[in-house]
UniProtKB/TrEMBL annotation, chains A, B, C, D:
It comes from Haloferax sulfurifontis ATCC BAA-897. The Mn(2+) ion enhances activity. InterPro entries: Amidohydrolase, Bact_exopeptidase_dim_dom, Peptidase_M20, Peptidase_M20/M20A_hydrolases, Peptidase_M20_dimer. Pfam families: M20_dimer, Peptidase_M20. Gene3D superfamilies: Zn peptidases. One of its GO terms (cellular component) is cytoplasm. GO terms for biological process: folic acid catabolic process. SUPFAM superfamilies: Bacterial exopeptidase dimerisation domain, Zn-dependent exopeptidases. This is Amidohydrolase. GO terms for molecular function: dipeptidase activity; metal ion binding; para-aminobenzoyl-glutamate hydrolase activity.
Amino acid sequence: MADAVRARLAELRRDLHRHPEPGWCEFRTTARLVEELRAIGVDELAVGADAYDPADRMAVPSDDRLDEWYERALDSGTDPDLLEPLRGGTTGCVAVLDRGEGPTVGLRVDIDGLFIEESDDAAHDPAAEGFRSETGETMHACGHDTHMTWGLATLEAVKDSDFSGRLVVFFQPAEEVSGGGAPMAKSEYAAGIDYFFAVHVGLDHPTGEVVAGIEKPLAMCHIDAEIEGTTAHAGKAPEAGANAIHALGTAIESVYGIPRHSDGMTRVNVGRVEGGTASNVIADEVEAVAEARGETTELMEYAKSELRRRFEKAAELHDCEATVDVVSESPRADSDPELVEAVADAAEGVRGVDRVVPTADFGASEDATFLMERVQRDGGLACYSIVGTDHPTSHHTATFDVDERSLETGVEVLTRSILSVAGVESAPELAGENR
Amino acid sequence: MADAVRARLAELRRDLHRHPEPGWCEFRTTARLVEELRAIGVDELAVGADAYDPADRMAVPSDDRLDEWYERALDSGTDPDLLEPLRGGTTGCVAVLDRGEGPTVGLRVDIDGLFIEESDDAAHDPAAEGFRSETGETMHACGHDTHMTWGLATLEAVKDSDFSGRLVVFFQPAEEVSGGGAPMAKSEYAAGIDYFFAVHVGLDHPTGEVVAGIEKPLAMCHIDAEIEGTTAHAGKAPEAGANAIHALGTAIESVYGIPRHSDGMTRVNVGRVEGGTASNVIADEVEAVAEARGETTELMEYAKSELRRRFEKAAELHDCEATVDVVSESPRADSDPELVEAVADAAEGVRGVDRVVPTADFGASEDATFLMERVQRDGGLACYSIVGTDHPTSHHTATFDVDERSLETGVEVLTRSILSVAGVESAPELAGENR
Amino acid sequence: MADAVRARLAELRRDLHRHPEPGWCEFRTTARLVEELRAIGVDELAVGADAYDPADRMAVPSDDRLDEWYERALDSGTDPDLLEPLRGGTTGCVAVLDRGEGPTVGLRVDIDGLFIEESDDAAHDPAAEGFRSETGETMHACGHDTHMTWGLATLEAVKDSDFSGRLVVFFQPAEEVSGGGAPMAKSEYAAGIDYFFAVHVGLDHPTGEVVAGIEKPLAMCHIDAEIEGTTAHAGKAPEAGANAIHALGTAIESVYGIPRHSDGMTRVNVGRVEGGTASNVIADEVEAVAEARGETTELMEYAKSELRRRFEKAAELHDCEATVDVVSESPRADSDPELVEAVADAAEGVRGVDRVVPTADFGASEDATFLMERVQRDGGLACYSIVGTDHPTSHHTATFDVDERSLETGVEVLTRSILSVAGVESAPELAGENR
Amino acid sequence: MADAVRARLAELRRDLHRHPEPGWCEFRTTARLVEELRAIGVDELAVGADAYDPADRMAVPSDDRLDEWYERALDSGTDPDLLEPLRGGTTGCVAVLDRGEGPTVGLRVDIDGLFIEESDDAAHDPAAEGFRSETGETMHACGHDTHMTWGLATLEAVKDSDFSGRLVVFFQPAEEVSGGGAPMAKSEYAAGIDYFFAVHVGLDHPTGEVVAGIEKPLAMCHIDAEIEGTTAHAGKAPEAGANAIHALGTAIESVYGIPRHSDGMTRVNVGRVEGGTASNVIADEVEAVAEARGETTELMEYAKSELRRRFEKAAELHDCEATVDVVSESPRADSDPELVEAVADAAEGVRGVDRVVPTADFGASEDATFLMERVQRDGGLACYSIVGTDHPTSHHTATFDVDERSLETGVEVLTRSILSVAGVESAPELAGENR
C-alpha cells in the first residue's frame, strides 16, 4: 500500500474520531460517509430510511436527544441536504458495488460512539495529536472510527480490483445499544448474500494478530423495567403506599437468583436504577435498566423471560405494577468454518500479519449476529473476524486508542477475503510492491 | 383587627409566597424579613452567622445550589447589602424585643419552601389571584409563608402592647430538611427562655379550630447512604465485580425488615435510590436517601442504628462498602400541659376561633423539637400549637393553599398567649373594637 | 380459709401438675375435672361435644397425636367411661350452677399444658416436692393447673354461698394454640351472660398483687404455610426445578417487611421452618409456621392478609404455590371498666392482697377474648384479671412455678367478684375466721 | 462365561442388594466382601483402619447412627470377628494381587447404599424376585451392589489369568456422601499406581453400551450451615431477638445470587432447612444443608467460599452467627485419553457390547476423582468408565434396578482393560466358549 493511501486512511479515521455520535444520532458521521462513498463512486447508495425500515430500529433515544445531536451536526457545518434524510434518527447507509456475474458478498461495519468523555492526557495520542473528540461527552472508545475507515477503503479496493459479483457494505448505526443490527438484517440489502463478513478491531488481540472467525458471541437483550406503585407519607401512613423502591429491592434480589441453566452459560444484570423523591415519601416510581445474555439464543430467551417474570412478580408482591420493555436484542450466531478458513488463508499472506488464530471465543455480544443469522438462514456463510491492534487501555475507556498500523492491515485482510470468495487473486496494488 | 392590618397581612404573605426558597437558600426571604423587622423596630436583630453557629447547620445543600439561589436572589433585585451576610447559606434571623422586667418568651416560625412546582390551575387561588410562585420549581406548599407573617405581625403586636420582659422570635431556615432547628437550639438566643411557642397552620384542622398543644411529634433522622463496589463487565466477568446495585437490593429488603419495637412506634423508609450506568456494567456506586422515625428519641435511635447497620452489612455481603451519613435529625418533645392550658385559654377568646382542641397527636416530625427540648432541659416550658385553616389539598401538594382568615387568627392566638404568660391582659386594639 | 381447704387446693393443683396434656389432648385432665365437678355437685355438666360444636375447634392436632395421648390417659388408669366421650379430641367441659333468680355469670379457666420438658433440678419445687410432670415431654409451664384449681374451688365456694342466679364455668381446652376459645364462645353456654370473668396467674405480677382488668390483649392468628414446588437435580438441571426453599427465603424477607400501620402496633413472625431433603436436590416442599398480631382485630387482619399475600406471591415468583392456613386466631377484647371496678373492689378486701392495680397492658394474646367479645356483643360485661404470684422464672420455661399462696387468693378474688356482681356480700366462711 | 459363573454373579449381587447400608455403616457389607475375598484368595487384604487413615474420612455420621447399623449387622448374624475391626465406622477394604513384574493397576468400586425405601411393587424385580432391601429404609438405588460384584469377579478373573504385576482393588465406602474417596486416595495403597480404573453402571446408558471414559465430573462440596441467634417473644419483644429464621431468609436469597463465573459453570443449592420452634417465638437456631459445584475444582472453590461468606454475612446482618462446615468434597478429574482408548479397545471385543462411546460428559459429581487426581499427580493414568444397563427408573429412585446382563459385561470390560494395560491378551475362558 502506498504511503499516500496509508496517510489518507489515518486522516479519515482521525476526522471520524473527532466527531463521535451516539446510536441513531450519527448525523454528521453518516453525512461524511455519504460524501466519501460518492467520491469513491458506488452503484447504489441507500441512506437511512432507504436502507432499512425505520420501524425495525431498536433502542431509539428520545426525540430530545435526536434533536440535540441533529442540531450539533448542523452547527458543525455539515451539509443540510445530506442531513435532511437522517432527521429523526434514520442514520447509517448501505453502499453497493454491482460488478457483473458472481457471488453476493456482504461486509458490515458499525459507526456509533459512546458516552465517554475522552481523556485529554498528553500520553493519550488523540489528545497529543489533536484529534481528540470535539463533543465533550462522547468518544469513539470502541474503534468504530477504524471500522468505518476499513469499510470505505475496502470498498474502494474491491472496486479497483477484478472483483466480479455484488458487494454490499452495511454502515450500521447503533451497535453499542444493539439497535441497528436488526433493521439492517431485515432489509432487502441483506437478501441473497452468499458470503458475509463482519469485523472488529482489537479486543485484546495485539497488532499483527488476526482471529479469522470468532465463536460464541453471546445472545443478549437490553431491558427497561419500570415499577409503579402508590405514594404515601412514610411517617404518617406507611401502610397506604405501594412501595416501588421496596419492590425494586425484591426484584433485584430475585433477578440475580435466576437459576443457572444446564444447557450453558447465562448472564443477568441490573445495571442502573433510579426512582423515588425524598426520604419521607414512599416511592411510587422507579426505573431499572437490565440485561440478559445466553450462550445460545434459547438461553438468552430463558434468562429474559425469567427476568421479566421476576420484575413483574416482585412488583405484585408489593402491590405495584412492573412494565418490562425489551429495548433491543441480538441473537447468537457463529462463524462458518469454511469462511473462517478463507479468511485465515487470506490473512496469512498479508504484510504485517504475524499470527493468524483460526478461532476464539468472543465472550461478549454483538448485533452483527442479526445479519449473520439472516445470511445463514438464507443459505449463505458468515464470518466475524478480529484484526488485532495494540490498544493502550481497554475498549470503552477514556484512553482507548488503536495502533494505526491496523488500518492498512484490516483493509488488506478484508479485501483479500472478499476477493478470495469471489475467486479473484489478490490484486498486486493492494499488497504493495514493497511487501 | 382593622381591615387595613388584615390586608397588610395578606399582602405580606402573598409576597413571601411568590418567592419560595429551599432550605439554607432563603436569601431573598431573609432579606425581606430583615426589611420588615427593621421597619417594625426591634431591640436586637441577629442575622445568619450572628444568630447561630454555621457549623451547627444540618442538611446544608451543595455549594452549587447555594450559589444558584444566591444569584437568583440578586437577580430578583434584592438589596446586595442585605444578602451579603447570608452568602454560603447562613440564612434566617432572630429578632428580640427587650421590654424591661419579666419573663423571656420564645416564638419560632420556619421560613423555607419546597421543591414542588406550584399548580397554575385557575381553581388554585394563588394562580387565580396572581401570587403563584415565580421560581418555576419551588413552592410554599406547607404554609411557611403564613408562619413568617404570623411571626412578624405577632412581634409587632407584642411590641405595641404592655408586654414587659424579653421576646425572642426565631425565623428558622431549613425546617423541611430538619436542618435549622439544631443550630437555633444551640444558640445563645435559646438560652434562658421561660416560655416557648412554636406553631403550624392547617395540618387537617379547619379554619376556626385551634389545637393548643400537640403531642408525640416523631423523632426523626434523614440519612444519605452510599454504596461503593467494583465495576466489571456484566457479560464477560460477572464474578469480578462487587455489585453495588445488588447490595442496594439486599439493603432495601433488610431495612424494611427492621424488627418492630415493643416500646412503641417506629418507621423506616428508603425514599430515593439512584446508581449505576448501563445494563452491561456491574454498578460500582449507588446512593439512597432514607429516614428513620420513632415515637421517642430512643426509638428513633434504635431504628437509625439498625438502618445504618443493615446498609453496612448488606454492602459487606456483596463485598461493597456503605457510607451512611445522618444528614439531619430531630428529637421528640411534647408540649407542656401548663403552657397548653395557657394557649387554650388564650385561644378561647379569639374572634374566629370556634373550637379549641386541647391536644392532638402530631404524627409527623418537626425540628422545632430541638428548641422545645432545649427550653425544657433548661427548666422552661414549651408548647407547639396548630392554628387550623381550610386547605383545599394536603400539605406538600401543588395545590396546597391556606384560608387567609387564619392569618389574623394566628396572630391573635400567639399574641394573647405571649401576653398571657407575661401576665398582661390582651390589648384591646389587637382584638379590634368590632369583635 | 381453713388450712384443710388450703391443703386440698394444693393437692389438687399438684395432681393436675403431674399430668399436663397438650391442646385437645386433655383427656386425663378433663376426666379428673369431671370427677371433681361430680363430687362438688353441679346442676348441669356438659362434657366435650355436649359443651360445644367440635367443628368449631381450631388447631386440632393430628389423629396420631390425639390417639397417642388418649392411650396415655387410658394407660395411666383413668376411668374409660369418663374418657370415651373425649375420644377424638373433644376435651374440656362446662359446669353450671342454677340458683334461681339473678344474673348469669361466666368464669373461664384454661386447662392445657405445653410441650416443655420440666426441669428436674432440685431447686425446682415440683421436682423437689415430687409433683414434677410425669409425661417426660409436657409441662404446666403457664399455670393452667392453678387456673383449673381456681375454677373448681370458686365454683364450690359460690355453690356454698347465698349466690342467686346462674354461674357458668368454662374449662376451656387448647388455649396455648388459640384453639378452644372460639368453640366455647359459639356455644349455647356463652349465651346470655351478664358478667364474664377470665383470669390468669402471674404474668410478672408478684404474690399479693392483683390486676383488676387487663387492657389491650393483642389480636392474633397462627398460620401454617406450605410452599410446593418442583424438585430437580441441583447439579444437572437447576433450571428444571421450582425451588420451594428459594421461595421460602423470599417469603421470609417479604413477611418481615410488611409495612408498619399508622393505626397502631402490628407484629409478624415466622417461627419455624422445615423442608427439603438433601443438598443436591432442589426442594419441592417446605413448611413454615407464622403468626400475625395487632393492637386491634383490624390491625391483626391487616397483618394476616399481608402475610398470606406475601407467602403466595413469593411462591409465585419462584413458580411455586403456597397454601396458607389460619390455624387459629383470637380477637382483641378489653375489660369493661365497670367490671374492672367491681373486681378491684372485691380484691381490696382479700387477705394476702397488698396491691390492687386497676388496669395494665397485656402485651400478649389470649383466646379468652373470643368469650369476652361474645359476651360484650350480647350486651354483657367482661373482665380479664391477673392474680399475681412469685414465679421464679418466666412463663413457658422449664423451671416455671407458682407460689401456692396464690391458690387461695385467686379463689377469694374470683368468688368475691362473682358474688359482688350478683349482689351478695362475701360469705364469711370464705374469708375464714382467722383472716 | 459359564452359566454357573453368571448365576453366581447374580446371586452375589442380590445378596448385597438385600442388605444396603449407608455411608460408613457398611458393616455387614464389608464383612461379606472380606469373606468373598478370602475365598478368592488375595495376597494382601487391608480392612478399615488398615486400608486408610480413619482421620481422613469425611461426612462420618453420628455415633448413634454408627452404633445402630453396627447392631443391625450383629443382629443379622454377621460374624462378630469380622465386624470388630469396623466398629466406629472404619468400613471398606483394599484387596491386592501381587503377581511378579509388571505395572500396578488400580480398580475402585463403591459399596454404600442410600436412604430410600425400596419399592415393594410387583413390577419391581427385586420385590418380585425376593431380593428387595431388608432394612426397611435403605436401598442400593444407585447400583453399588453391581459395582461390588464387578470388583470381586474382576479380581478373581485377573487372578486366574496370566496377569503379571500388581492389582489393587479399592472397595470404597461412603461415595454417596463424598466421604470415602479422600481417605482411600491418601492411603499407601494409592501410591505408585500406573493405571487406574473406576466404573459406574447405567447413568442413562442402555444395556450393550459402554462409555470408555467420562469427562467433566463436577467438583463438588457438601456444606452444613448453622445460624444461631437469640430467642425472644415475637409479640412482646420483637426487637430483643436475633432472628435466625430471618437470617436464613437473607442467606437463601443471597446464596442463589452468587455471581456466575466467566471461567465456566458453577452451581449452588440450599437443599434442606430446618429451625425454630413455634410461631410466637423468634427462632434462635436454624440449620441448612447446601452444596456448591464447579466445572473445575477452582470454580467449586469460588462457589464454596462465596457460599460460606454469604451465610456468615447474612447472619451478621441479623446479629446472628453462622457456622459453615464443609462436610465433604470431591475435585474434578478427567479420564486420560490413552486409557480411554485402551478401555474402548477392550470393550469392542466383549460379547453383549454393541456400542462403544469413546467419551461423554458426566454432569454429576463423584469422589473417585480423589483417586484419579492422586494417580494422575503421581504420573499414572486414570479412567472412569460407564457400563450401560437398562434401568427402569432413574438412579436414586425406589424402583431403580439394573439389567443383570450387565454383570457379566462389566466384569469382562474391566478384566480385558486391566489385562490390556498389563500387556496380556484376554484369556479365552473369560469370554466364554460360546461368545
